[in-house]
Amino acid sequence: MQTPASPADRTWDDLLQSGTGPVQQTFLDLVRNTRDTVGYHPDIVWGNLQTPEYAAAMLRLVVDFHEIPADIEAGVAARTARAQYIGQGGRTYHVLLGEQALLTNIGGADVMRGQLRRLLDATVLSGLSLGIIPARARLQIYPGDGFSVFDDRRAEVEGFRGAETITDPARLAVFRKAFGLLQSSALYGQDARDLITRVLAAT
Fold first, then answer.
1. Is 6 domain-assigned?
2. How many structural domains compose the chain?
3. Which residues constitute the domain of residue 50?
4. pLDDT digits over 23-41, tens only?
5. Which site in 39, 50, 58, 70 is 20 to 30 Å from 127, CA atoms measured?
6. Residue 96: strand, helix, or coil
7. What is the pLDDT of residues 101-127, one digit of tens each?
8. Handedness of CA 137, 143, 149, 152 (dihedral sign)
9. Rounded to an integer, what distance in angstroms lies between the CA atom of residue 167 and that of residue 182?
10. How far apart are CA 67 and CA 103, in angstroms?
């Protein structure tokens, strides 16, 4: 008889079959144990900054698409709990969002307005460097998947094909290079705030 895999050995896709809660709790543990995070999210808002309403709407889409248990409340609680680590314990976060992340309609206009206001507040958070890549910015690299890199030792990439964990140093170097090139097209500080404000006014 085959021995069941321990929770630590289960992949993101395996965990997802039990609902959003186990995946989000395991990801929260990863965030808690990481000191330095960089991430690029071209078309949705970074999970650590999602409002409860945005997170609930996003996880509802995940549940419906993958036909998994609808434990959305548990998933939202674990996902939004990531925000508590921003600015705590010397952790640093450098995150790039594509302008499309401000425009992609998750949950409707009211949800998006609340989410955009959250992003405005986040531009001044200690320990977080938040850049926005304008839709018309000239890119120095072709567009690719969103990703997060944790302590320069592990990258997480997620899409329709499933989630992928990357730890090979040569492959991690590709993500570091991509992030540097993407960063050169991003707006920060007041310029980023102005862009978010314009999108909010039109939402």
1. no
2. 1
3. 12-202
4. 899 999 999 999 999 999 9
5. 58
6. strand
7. 999 999 999 999 999 999 999 999 999
8. negative
9. 21
10. 26
Establish how many alpha carbons lie within 13 A of residue 3's alpha carbon, considering only the half-sphere containing its beta carbon: 4
Whole-number Å distance between alpha carbons of 97 and 75: 22
Q: Which of 31, 18, 101 is nearest to 63 (CA)?
A: 18
Q: Are 48 and 31 in contact (CB under 8 A)?
A: yes
**Would 86 be classed as within a structural domain?**
yes
Tokens 């492959």: give the residue.
171
Summarize pLDDT for 38-51 with one digit per residue, the tens: 999 999 999 999 99
> Of 197, 178, 179, 154, which Cα lies nearest the Cα of 26?
154
Tell me the per-residue pLDDT of 138-149, one tens digit each, with 9 for 90 and over. 999 998 999 999
Alpha-carbon distance 115 to 109, whole Å?
10
| Strand ranges in 24-153 using DSSP code E only, listed in sequence order | 36-41, 92-98, 128-133, 147-150
The b/e string for 167-192 (b: 16+ C-beta within 10 A; e otherwise) is: eeeeebeebeebbeebbebbbeeeeb
Residue 1 lies in a domain: no
C-alpha atoms less than 13 angstroms from C-alpha of 101 in its C-beta half-sphere: 27
Specify if 16 maps to a domain: yes
Residue 78 Cα to chain centre, angstroms: 13
